[in-house]
């Protein structure tokens, strides 16, 4: 037997006087890459992953083509008119499927490794807990981004129908990628928190479902509680108007049911679908009197709806149905600001919380063990 | 942790690495006291056996030593470093092989070791040489580029050993390293541990197979119910197996000198056979051989029925749990 070759070990002895347990948050590119590479190799080698990609491509592609066919029929109007509808539909399809697939990428990453007996051997190396967590997060996010990237051709296809600015494609891809990163972080946190993989997967899916389904439900359920009778300024036909001819609308103070959605708009604002719709930056909705109906833009409609809910009109316009002359009705009408930065930030915050939880749970030596687990 | 402990590692490290020093370490899991005041010292350059019944706290102790668990009380030094307050420094010097561990099935043996080399921040060029060397050491070179999933249990065990050695640790913690190994690999393991110890490594091995520990260990630490137990010194009288070519000649001589013996194997007085008898330690055995040979008894072998470790183990009065 030959003598072992010398090995240079980067001695990470903290300088004397440093606080104990320093190094938990130490991040090096090399460390993160080591973990991410390991995770990706683990996943990519398994054929399941390739199958998932193919299935994804076929499903998104198939649905896009079906949608394209349905929207091309004579009754739906011209291609340019259905362009935003097509784009919105494909965006939501990609986002919806992405939100379904992404939780599985991280929701078993820590407790699965712990059950397989590979986590502790990695923890005792010189990798910091933050490097292990970030490496796992990065690998999962990259995998999610691959799903997103193979959907881009279908988004481009929808773009070709016109009436959607090309910048919307870039904005949608970036925002969806960030939302998926947040979901990865949430899954990572649960996988570190819960010892059973089934439990963490369910919790991650529940979190995503809460963001997607629970928020509009809560918004609807709280709607009565934010609605009350109030004195409001109304732009309405005069009381003396006898429904004959053009009314001379005037501003009056009347009692109306007012919904203070400015208190609950954020319930919709943190919904990933709303975030994407608001952030997509599709064309401004044309005035309703423009060319009879205009184009159907689901993303734009959601954007306008949520922005209005956030800052309801100060003046109630009840004159709009009586033809022209509504424009001067809103003396202090302000353009409501975008809500997507808030929604995106809220989602990313959840992801960061998950990441921090994972780092804390991966820190060794540990004081307590997750219930029912052995360390090794 | 007191300030006295903090000051200790501000001081320059002592010239001779003390290996493993454990003082009064306790650790409870809920109401179960897994470790209840362990004292242990394992010296550099020696293989120390960690012996104890199931559930005595061997694995928990190794987890504390590997820097995975914080002890509730007591202090630990691994090559002079506290795994709790100086985790990275202690871990850089510790090689740990758990009793049950997994491998990443999709990776090849070489990739597994390269990943760990990277995780220990070994530069890639050095790592490649080191990994080749380790694969040869544990006789996995021909499996180097096959996925770890095709490896047998024993081969995975050897890969796990190579993994623990990838950063040339000063302190090696092995939890049941020989389980699943074939006889050839056990001999290799023994030789490897011997060589590592001779190179100055501190080796702590836990195992249930006492005969095997006996062959490789220089020192032994007994733990039971989470405490270090000092076994009562092995009594001078122990049972030995005495074997001769002719059972008749042996028994006749033994009876003539007035020794008490019990039948062993072999029934025909003319054929080979053996007896069991109480012998007063090695000196007594030497006297027995001398006298028997002088009396013309065709003695072939003489040895204790049980190893000294096993005898010490059996004298532990603690019960199994």
Automatic annotation (TrEMBL), chain B:
InterPro entries: AAA+_ATPase, ABC_transporter-like_ATP-bd, P-loop_NTPase. PROSITE patterns: ABC_TRANSPORTER_2 (PS50893). Keywords: ATP-binding, Nucleotide-binding, Transport. This is ABC transporter ATP-binding protein. One of its GO terms (molecular function) is ATP binding. The lineage of its organism: Bacteria, Bacillati, Actinomycetota, Actinomycetes, Micrococcales. Signal peptide: none annotated. Gene3D superfamilies: P-loop containing nucleotide triphosphate hydrolases. CDD domains: ABC_DR_subfamily_A (cd03230). Residues 20-250 form the ABC transporter domain. Belongs to the ABC transporter superfamily. Pfam families: ABC_tran.
